[in-house]
Task: structure prediction
Amino acid sequence: MASKEEILEALADYQVQCNDNKRLRKMQRNWTRKLNFVAEDTGDVFSMDVVNGEIVSFSAVPIENPDIIVTTTSENLCDMFWGDLNPSQKYLQGEIRVKASQEDILRLDAISMIIWPDD
Result:
């Protein structure tokens, strides 16, 4: 089980990876969404605000009316943000559940392929 602090540290690293990736920023330049990440084993909820493809903020406070909700274990959230697991594979196995439009699910898949191309 990952702690809230561990997940926030992983989110900070994920923010840097995404915001520093020029290819990803160009591809997502028109994508603005509010996301919540639910750790089902701890009940913690983390949020992320993406504006024009840039992660402008994240926190351990949920956003009201998010566009996307990702639910999994705290360990999977931490490993996903560190890049230690393949989120697409976990999604297909049902270990990560995503509530979003089909377009947003495809974008999340594309993001993971760019950030972690070897997975």
